[in-house]
């Protein structure tokens, strides 16, 4: 799933390649992806892309005041095309293509643009056309952005105080902190040397300061690693930069211990016992049930 660093990098890529361009057309192939009807998606035709922003994991193209907002969900991605002039219309339900945005042809006759695709059977990619991004329910309910100047240790302390949620779940809750998902919550907790099962309200002031530093540094470093990369290269860059997430069974880069995993119904987390849990493996409840 694209998280804050990847969405920020996609936004940066589109600022360089789409801003100033005129939208020629928007083709919706996966009709379930379009979540709004008024204004219609056809209203974007002829408008100029004047800005690109990120709201948590949402990508926002400002087209002369009308906003094309998308959430890529778990299996979604954005593919930039230098020339879509020869691209043929695609029949709904065929392949991973969900939305195609064509920009006006340049002087060389090529028509740039991008496609939103979604792999897998769970189709959750969402597209909205709105006058204000706050009209998108997911955007309106977002918590603070962890890379914003006002996301301070005191702000984080106010978030965790009295909260009996496990810290892993709290970091992933978009209504609490915007933009962090399964992968970067693992990375943040490894950097903070903190168990994913630790209760948020039990954090000391020193641990809150360490967690805040880990959040900001981990995300900023990931954004910087991705800066300037083409959209097609962002997935592989993300994977290569992860230290614990997706690395079950591999040695920890910090201490050499074996990275372990806890599985859930539809996801899993990875952690280092030596770095994060005092050497004690966490109970994998799903595995325990299978062994009974």
UniProtKB/TrEMBL annotation:
Formamidopyrimidine-DNA glycosylase catalytic domain: residues covered: 2-93
GO BP annotations listed: base-excision repair
UniProt entry tagged with the keyword Magnesium: no
Cofactor or coenzyme needed: Zn(2+)
GO terms assigned for molecular function: 8-oxo-7,8-dihydroguanine DNA N-glycosylase activity; class I DNA-(apurinic or apyrimidinic site) endonuclease activity; damaged DNA binding; zinc ion binding
Family classification: Belongs to the FPG family.
Protein name (record): Formamidopyrimidine-DNA glycosylase
Keywords: DNA damage, DNA repair, DNA-binding, Glycosidase, Hydrolase, Lyase, Metal-binding, Multifunctional enzyme, Zinc, Zinc-finger
Known catalytic reactions: Hydrolysis of DNA containing ring-opened 7-methylguanine residues, releasing 2,6-diamino-4-hydroxy-5-(N-methyl)formamidopyrimidine
InterPro entries: FPG_cat, FPG_N, H2TH_FPG, Ribosomal_uS13-like_H2TH, Znf_DNA_glyclase/AP_lyase, Znf_FPG/IleRS
Domain FPG-type per the UniProt entry, residue ranges: 243-277
Keyword Metal-binding appears in the UniProt entry: yes
E.C. code: 3.2.2.23, 4.2.99.18
Pfam family, one: zf-FPG_IleRS
């Amino acid at each position: 799933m694209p998280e804050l660093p990847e969405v920020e990098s996609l936004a940066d890529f589109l600022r360089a390649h789409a801003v100033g361009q005129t939208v020629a057309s928007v083709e919706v192939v996966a009709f379930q992806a379009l979540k709004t009807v008024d204004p219609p998606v056809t209203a974007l035709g002829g408008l100029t892309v004047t800005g690109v922003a990120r709201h948590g994991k949402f990508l926002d193209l400002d087209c002369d005041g009308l906003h094309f907002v998308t959430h890529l969900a778990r299996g979604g991605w954005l593919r930039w095309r230098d020339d879509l002039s020869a691209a043929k219309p695609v029949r709904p339900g065929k392949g991973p293509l969900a939305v195609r945005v064509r920009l006006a042809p340049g002087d060389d006759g090529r028509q740039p643009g991008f496609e939103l695709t979604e792999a897998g059977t769970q189709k959750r990619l969402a597209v909205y056309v709105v006058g204000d991004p706050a009209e998108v329910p997911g955007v309106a309910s977002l918590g603070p952005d962890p890379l914003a100047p006002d996301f301070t240790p005191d702000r984080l302390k106010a978030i965790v105080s009295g909260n009996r949620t496990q810290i892993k779940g709290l970091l992933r809750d978009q209504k609490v902190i915007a933009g962090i998902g399964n992968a970067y919550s693992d990375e943040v907790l490894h950097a903070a040397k903190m168990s994913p099962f630790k209760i948020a309200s039990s954090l000391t002031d020193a641990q809150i300061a360490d967690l805040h530093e880990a959040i900001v540094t981990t995300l900023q470093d990931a954004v910087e690693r991705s800066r300037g990369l083409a959209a097609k290269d962002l997935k592989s860059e993300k994977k290569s930069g992860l230290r614990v997430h997706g690395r079950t069974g591999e040695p920890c880069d910090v201490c050499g211990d074996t990275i372990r995993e806890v599985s859930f119904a539809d996801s899993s987390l990875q952690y280092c016992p030596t770095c994060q849990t005092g050497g004690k493996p966490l109970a994998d409840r799903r595995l325990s049930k299978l062994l009974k």
